[in-house]
Every structure is written in structure tokens, then in C-alpha cells.
Write a structure and sequence with these properties.
With about 150 residues, the protein is α/β, with parallel strands linked by helices. The chain is built from four helices and eight strands. The protein has helices spanning about 45-60, 65-70, 85-95, 110-115, and strands spanning about 5-15, 15-25, 30-35, 70-75, 105, 125-135, 135-145, 145-150. Strands 3-2-1-4-5 form a five-stranded mixed β-sheet. Strand 2 (about 15-25) and strand 3 form a beta hairpin. The protein is globular and about 45 Å long. The termini are far apart.
Length: about 150
């Protein structure tokens, strides 16, 4: 069971910007940092940006934050076409930040889909559709934490 003092890290990495948030289990933001884009398909260099923005967020956090982090999720643009590059960059940034808990790296499409549900409202394995209009535009079918059909425009 996760205690009330537990913290989680969310990483939203896109073609234009990356945002890292440290939050408690209730969703209250403890620290936040932003940086440049990380999508390798847009010419982003994911490694240095992820390392810097994660370090900035942790540096803004209260003392003891690293020990309270129970895990994190990184939703990264470009993951469908460059999974190895983004997985390596994110996991390296996580380790270099001194974090030893699990970081789950997925497509930003998966995070966008699941962000539409309140806590506990969607059972594991739920399927549906998501439409994103940001630096790029895409529609996708989501099955749990996997991306199915994609229409990129």
C-alpha cells in the first residue's frame, strides 16, 4: 500500500516542450519544471532536455522528495516511431536523477487517453479513441496502455 506521503512523477514530452510534474497521490503538485521539445521526429534531442527538466523539478521539490517517489510515467511524443531512443533517454534521466523506482515510458497518446478519466473511473484494459492537436495532429485507438490504429495528419 502507498502511504499518504508518497509522490509520483509525470513527464509530458512533446515536440515543442516537455513538462515534468512531481505530485502527491491526491494529485496536488509539489514541483514543476518545463523545457524544450524532445520528439526526435521534430529534431528534438531527448536525453539532455529530459535530464535537465527532471533535475529542475526535483531541485524545486521539498527535501526528501527523491525518497518519497514511488514511480513515474513518461508520455512521450515520437514514441511510436523511436521507442528505443526515447526509452533510453527517459530511463537514463530517471537513473541519473537518483531515482530507483519504476518509470513507465509510453506514447503521449496513451497518457492523453487516460487523462480523460478521473481516478479509478476507468478499469485496466479499457479501450477507446483519442484525438490530439498540438505541435502535430493525430487520432489513435487505445487499448489499455497500447496504441492500436493511428491516423496522423
Amino acid at each position: 500500500m502507498v502511504g499518504e506521503d508518497a509522490l509520483v512523477v509525470g513527464i509530458d514530452g512533446g515536440g515543442t516542450a516537455v513538462r515534468v510534474v512531481v505530485a502527491d497521490i491526491a494529485g496536488r503538485i509539489v514541483a514543476e519544471a518545463r523545457g524544450g521539445g524532445i520528439n526526435p521526429n521534430s529534431g528534438g534531442e531527448p536525453g539532455p532536455v529530459l535530464r535537465q527538466v527532471l533535475a529542475d523539478a526535483l531541485d524545486q521539490s521539498p527535501a526528501g522528495t527523491r525518497d518519497a517517489i514511488v514511480g513515474g510515467v513518461a508520455g512521450l511524443a515520437g514514441y511510436l516511431t523511436s521507442p528505443d531512443v526515447l526509452e533510453t533517454a527517459a530511463q537514463s534521466a530517471w537513473t541519473e536523477a537518483g531515482l530507483s523506482t519504476q518509470l513507465r515510458v509510453v506514447s503521449d497518446l496513451v497518457v492523453a487517453f487516460w487523462s480523460g478519466f478521473s481516478s479509478g473511473a476507468a478499469p485496466h484494459g479499457r479501450s477507446g479513441r483519442v484525438l490530439i492537436a498540438g505541435t502535430g495532429a493525430v487520432a489513435a485507438a487505445i487499448h489499455g496502455s497500447e496504441v492500436g490504429a493511428v491516423c496522423d495528419g
